[in-house]
């Protein structure tokens, strides 16, 4: 395979380094260089800029690989995977300081090396994308001249991000109320009360000293879970000009046309009177199909209700949030800003909407979430997914006074397949077992691969009795059917242990332990059997 990512090998034994390079290149990786000591490793990392360093710990010279990896990480943000024959406590402690992506003990198998490097490069790509998004956010914050703040209900004070002092110079780390110099005490108290009880904040306050007043708009959201102390994250911006003078659309004409955001100007009846090129590009609409129409008709999947506009025209004056928009024959998520423009008499004359396509962000979040909660070989949920789903099912069962069955499935004879036909055949067998389980459980059941040849089925509403026995026997029969692999046909069976909520325990760990114990009873009974937790014999 062609990965297009570069590796640097740091190994002081020439034969080992050559073998490692040959192995990696045979797997399709690009080896940019090989060096044998820490100084050369740092110089090569600076010159070649590899994506990943494969670092031996014992190197030529006085400087160990752990120190070289730390320097490379700090100077060039390039991570390492340690390849070493040693794992003493002091060595592990030194290795931790460089935040490595992995630690492989020699001798290792080629498939272990491939897996570690591949996952390391995947993590590296994800981190680069995350850093790119962070840079974009930093540039956007600086361009928008925003101040970033956090407020904790525990400390009861506002903390200001000091990374952008030029963008938002009005915050203070001193003793002023909420870090805003000149904020009136009464207004500070009212703002604090709002932060303690509300979920969304949109508020403009007056700050400043020595007779020079500025108006600052605070926007934020409470991200605390229910029952926890408030934890706000938000932004602030100087809106003095907008507060003292009705914002003129003419003054923003250059920004309007040059903005990467799609911008709409609506009249007081919410009909589109103007749109920039970015809007037409984002939505696929033309001027003929957009002008004169309400955006709820041609853009928004779910229209804004009247209450939204009343709040916008009242105290809020500004809103931002995620909305679902139309584009030809598809929908896409957008981050939308909405604001009101008033005339000299204070009446609403226009609305301004700005939208940004956030499809890529949502897709990246979904992909990262999938990787965190699913087994990469079979696509089934993993141990983290099991914890989440089992806690959710237990909570639902408690509300409905229902039962849950947890089936612990361990394959009989899987080790022989691995030993006789190789790990690729074993992986293919696991994929087939996963697919059979998907097809033969109920629609409401959840199938998880715990690891190795161990699988779990969470079966809500399945009680101890005939229904359970029928389902488990069906799974045993299905898993015992021959499996056609590329190297031949193999047959394995399974041992299944079944635990029940609430009889076997009220917590996920208790249920898992009981099901595991029951599975081992099934194995001791001769395999291709099942046992119920708390019952030594299979159900009749």
From TrEMBL:
A Pfam family the protein falls into: PAS_9
Matching InterPro entries: CheY-like_superfamily, DGC-Regulatory_Protein, GGDEF_dom, Nucleotide_cyclase, PAC, PAS, PAS-like_dom_sf, Rev_trsase/Diguanyl_cyclase
One GO MF term: diguanylate cyclase activity
Presence of the UniProt keyword S-adenosyl-L-methionine in the record: no
Keywords of this entry: Nucleotidyltransferase, Phosphoprotein, Transferase
Domain GGDEF: 402-535
EC number(s) reported in the record: 2.7.7.65
Residue numbers of 4-aspartylphosphate PTMs: 56
CDD domains attached to this UniProt entry: GGDEF, PAS, REC_DC-like
Residues forming coiled coils: none
Domain Response regulatory intervals: 6-121
Enzyme's top EC category: transferase
Span of domain PAS: 248-293
NCBIfam families, per database record: GGDEF, sensory_box
Name of this chain's protein: Diguanylate cyclase domain-containing protein
């Amino acid at each position: 395979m062609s990965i297009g990512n570069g590796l640097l090998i740091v190994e002081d034994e020439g034969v080992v380094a050559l073998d490692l390079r040959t192995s990696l290149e045979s797997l399709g990786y690009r080896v940019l260089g090989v060096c044998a000591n820490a100084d050369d490793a740092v110089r090569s990392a600076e010159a070649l800029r590899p994506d990943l360093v494969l670092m031996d710990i014992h190197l030529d010279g006085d400087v160990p690989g752990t120190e070289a990896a730390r320097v490379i990480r700090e100077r060039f943000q390039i991570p390492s995977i340690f390849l070493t024959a040693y794992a003493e406590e002091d060595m592990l402690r030194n290795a931790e300081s460089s935040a490595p992506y992995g630690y492989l003990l020699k001798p290792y198998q080629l498939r272990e090396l491939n897996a570690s490097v591949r996952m390391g490069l995947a993590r590296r790509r994800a981190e680069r994308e995350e850093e790119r998004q962070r840079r974009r956010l930093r540039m956007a914050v600086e361009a928008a001249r925003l101040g970033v703040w956090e407020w904790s209900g525990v400390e009861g004070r506002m903390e200001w991000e000091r990374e952008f002092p030029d963008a938002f110079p009005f915050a203070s780390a001193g003793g002023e109320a909420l870090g805003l110099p000149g904020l009136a005490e009464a207004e500070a108290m009212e703002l604090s009360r709002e932060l303690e009880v509300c979920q969304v904040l949109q508020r403009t306050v007056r700050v400043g000293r020595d007779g020079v007043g500025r108006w600052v708009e605070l926007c934020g959201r409470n991200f605390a879970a229910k029952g926890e102390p408030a934890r706000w994250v938000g932004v602030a911006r100087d809106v003095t000009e907008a507060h003292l003078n009705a914002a003129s659309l003419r003054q923003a004409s250059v920004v309007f046309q040059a903005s990467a955001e799609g911008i709409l100007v609506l009249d007081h009846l919410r009909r589109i009177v103007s749109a920039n090129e970015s809007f037409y590009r984002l939505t696929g609409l033309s001027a003929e199909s957009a002008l004169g129409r309400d955006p709820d008709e041609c853009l928004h999947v779910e229209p804004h209700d009247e209450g939204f506009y009343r709040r916008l025209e009242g105290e809020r004056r500004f809103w931002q949030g995620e909305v679902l928009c139309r584009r030809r024959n598809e929908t896409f998520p957008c981050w939308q800003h909405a604001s009101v423009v008033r005339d000299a008499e204070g009446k609403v004359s226009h609305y301004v909407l700005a939208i940004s396509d956030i499809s890529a962000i949502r897709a990246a979040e979904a992909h990262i979430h999938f990787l965190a909660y699913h087994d990469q070989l079979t696509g089934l949920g993993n141990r983290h997914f099991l914890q989440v789903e089992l806690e959710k099912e237990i909570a639902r069962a408690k509300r409905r006074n229902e039962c849950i069955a947890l089936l612990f499935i361990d394959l009989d004879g899987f080790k022989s397949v691995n030993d006789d036909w190789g790990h690729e055949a074993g992986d293919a067998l696991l994929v087939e077992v996963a697919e059979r389980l998907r097809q033969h459980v109920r629609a409401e059941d959840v199938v998880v691969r715990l690891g190795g040849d161990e699988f779990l089925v969470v079966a809500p509403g399945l009680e101890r009795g005939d229904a359970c026995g029928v389902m488990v026997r069906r799974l045993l029969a299905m898993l015992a059917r021959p499996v056609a692999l590329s190297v031949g046909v193999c047959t394995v069976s399974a041992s299944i242990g079944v635990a029940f909520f609430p009889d076997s325990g009220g917590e996920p760990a208790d249920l898992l332990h009981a099901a595991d114990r029951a599975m081992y009873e099934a194995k001791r009974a001769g395999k291709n059997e099942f046992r119920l937790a708390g019952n030594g014999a299979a159900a009749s």
